[in-house]
């Protein structure tokens, strides 16, 4: 089919919203705030007033997300052109709604089987539950230096597909929360050889493939269905995301139906308008959209040369400035020389993963120190702090960060004293104690022991209990209370979880209902509890206890 000419400078939804905002008419439709008029007598809506004036619904001229024929249809076509998809769909419920819709499309019948990377976002588990699907979990490959899990290897995907030829597809996450990645093309090839789609949760990679210094996109690597959080690494409002598809392996008609099921029938026009604007910014400026943001990152790398205490994570044998585009989808020369077993070959330059090379400050403590100086990171773990740059970052941001790091450096003695007495230090001591009891904690015994390696304690490293698991059934039937009991974390090993435990961030379930709690997992639960980690799904907000199946009950029958 011949590609139609598009006017990339258009922002159809945004332009329509501007026209409606400026148009003089009386509203006899929802929303009830009536362009913000409801707040007039109470002094107005403050900074939200402009948003309220642009807050629309499906009326004449505004189109309909679930049956697009006008501006929304045009905006989605422009997005497909910008991101290299055959068809793109706007998401107003974040990547969560896209992941669920993809799973409900591919696993269209209860009992359908999907091969899934174990450390996936909770939305994937929820999608499996809604679909009544079975999951075969596969182990992601770890980076041997940092110990952090990246993605499953092509060999693992091939083995899983050979063992379960009835699988409807494969779902992986790329990049991970730390911006780490590898080449997806071999995974796509393995899937296509078996006639199934590769689904990619690319929530943190909406900007991929848009600049030579950025890794290649999942679509360019051959993925069939890709979910991107446009709000995370581009410039849309929070909850603004997109789902991109290509090729014949995904039923697009069914996908539209599933999206209508899981998304609101009253989608947010401000969010959709921001998706349109974010796309136009990228479409018009191209690689130039990232110039300022990359300059800010480069300024940080130069500044850290004078602060040797703080190091950045990057693929082995590469420098931070070179790590990004090394394994872009089109780089066949790099692919040819890459070691076949390399798990970590690309690093998003906008995901700055920092650690204290002296070991004085844990990642948690470094985050606390940075926040004290007005620099708010994305997340941290026992070793690393994740600092997110983007096309909106400036060199002034970097100057602020470097100034904070200089202050922290001169506080080294105080930091040492704090590290000896702080909750984070207690967490580290707890971690070390548990690790001494079981050197195989979360599979880390198979990794090289590097100085200060935190791999086994990252909430991203939620690993499968086998390289390729047995099929695990998921469903929505509640677990009867009489089949469960509450036990302490000291007593939970070798029991079967009856609740989902989700450390947040990053939102990767440590346990799902029906999963056996290994000694490793029990130790990790105690570490998280001692550290005061925030865990969604847990009935006990302090994570001192966990709900498990009673030993005399058939475990897992209510998944």
From TrEMBL:
Biased composition (Polar residues): 440-453
Domain Orn/Lys/Arg decarboxylases family 1 pyridoxal-P attachment site: 12-396
Lyase found in the keyword field: yes
Coiled-coil stretches noted in the UniProt entry, renumbered to this chain: none
Listed cofactors: pyridoxal 5'-phosphate
Keyword Lyase recorded: yes
Domain Orn/Lys/Arg decarboxylase C-terminal, chain residue ranges per copy: 481-529
Molecular functions per Gene Ontology: carboxy-lyase activity
Keyword list, A-Z: Decarboxylase, Lyase, Pyridoxal phosphate
SUPFAM superfamilies on file: Ornithine decarboxylase C-terminal domain, PLP-dependent transferases
Compositional bias segments (type: Basic and acidic residues): 426-439
InterPro entries from the UniProt entry: Orn/Lys/Arg_deCO2ase_major_dom, Orn_Lys_Arg_decarboxylase-I, Prn/Lys/Arg_de-COase_C, Prn/Lys/Arg_de-COase_C_sf, PyrdxlP-dep_Trfase, PyrdxlP-dep_Trfase_major
Pfam families from the UniProt entry: OKR_DC_1 (PF01276), OKR_DC_1_C (PF03711)
Family per similarity comment: Belongs to the Orn/Lys/Arg decarboxylase class-I family.
Protein name per UniProt: Amino acid decarboxylase
């Amino acid at each position: 089919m011949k590609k139609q000419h598009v006017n990339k400078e258009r922002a159809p939804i945004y332009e329509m919203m501007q026209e409606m905002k400026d148009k003089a008419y009386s509203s006899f439709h929802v929303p009830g705030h009536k362009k913000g008029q409801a707040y007039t007598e109470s002094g107005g809506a403050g900074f939200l007033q402009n948003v309220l004036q642009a807050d629309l619904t499906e009326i004449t001229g505004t189109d309909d997300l679930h049956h697009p024929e006008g501006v929304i249809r045009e905006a989605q076509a422009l997005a497909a052109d910008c991101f290299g998809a055959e068809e793109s769909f706007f998401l107003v419920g974040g990547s969560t709604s896209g992941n669920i819709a993809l799973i409900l499309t591919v696993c269209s019948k209860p009992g359908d089987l999907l091969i899934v990377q174990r450390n996936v976002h909770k939305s994937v588990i929820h999608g499996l539950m809604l679909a009544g699907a079975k999951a075969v979990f596969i182990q992601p490959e770890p980076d041997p230096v940092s110990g952090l899990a990246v993605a499953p290897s092509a060999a693992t995907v091939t083995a899983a597909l050979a063992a379960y030829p009835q699988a409807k597809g494969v779902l992986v996450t790329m990049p991970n929360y730390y911006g780490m990645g590898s080449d997806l093309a071999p995974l796509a090839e393995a899937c296509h050889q078996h006639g199934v789609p590769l689904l990619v949760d690319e929530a943190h990679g909406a900007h991929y493939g848009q600049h030579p210094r950025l890794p290649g996109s999942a679509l360019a690597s051959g993925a069939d269905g890709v979910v991107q959080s446009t709000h995370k690494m581009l410039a849309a409002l929070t909850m603004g995301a997109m789902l991109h598809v290509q090729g014949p392996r995904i039923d697009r008609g069914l996908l539209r139906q599933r999206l209508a099921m899981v998304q609101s029938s009253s989608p947010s026009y401000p969010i959709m308008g921001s998706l349109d604007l974010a796309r136009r910014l990228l479409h018009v400026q191209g690689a130039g959209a990232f110039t300022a943001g990359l300059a800010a990152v480069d300024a940080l790398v130069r500044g850290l040369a004078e602060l040797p205490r703080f190091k950045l994570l990057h693929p082995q044998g590469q420098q931070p400035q070179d790590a990004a585009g090394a394994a872009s989808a089109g780089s066949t020369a790099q692919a040819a020389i890459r070691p076949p077993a390399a798990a970590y070959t690309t690093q998003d330059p906008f995901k700055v993963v920092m650690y204290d090379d002296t070991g004085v400050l844990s990642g948690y403590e470094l985050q606390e120190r940075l926040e004290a100086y007005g620099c708010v990171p994305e997340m941290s773990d026992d070793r690393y702090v994740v600092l997110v740059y983007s096309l909106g970052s400036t060199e002034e941001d970097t100057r602020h960060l470097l100034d904070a790091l200089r202050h922290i450096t001169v506080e080294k003695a105080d930091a040492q004293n704090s590290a000896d007495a702080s909750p984070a230090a207690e967490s580290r001591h707890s971690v070390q104690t548990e690790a001494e009891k079981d050197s195989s904690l979360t599979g880390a015994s198979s990794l090289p022991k590097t100085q200060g390696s935190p791999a086994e304690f990252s909430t991203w490293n939620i690993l499968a209990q086998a390289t390729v698991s047995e099929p695990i059934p998921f469903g929505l039937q509640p677990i009867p209370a009489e089949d469960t009991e509450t036990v302490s974390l000291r007593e939970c090993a070798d029991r079967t979880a009856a609740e989902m435990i989700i450390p947040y961030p990053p939102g990767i379930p440590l346990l799902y209902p029906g999963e056996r709690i290994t000694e490793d997992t029990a130790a990790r639960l105690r570490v998280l509890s001692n550290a005061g980690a925030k865990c969604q799904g847990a009935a006990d907000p302090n994570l001192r206890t966990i709900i498990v199946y009673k030993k005399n009950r058939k475990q897992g029958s209510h998944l």
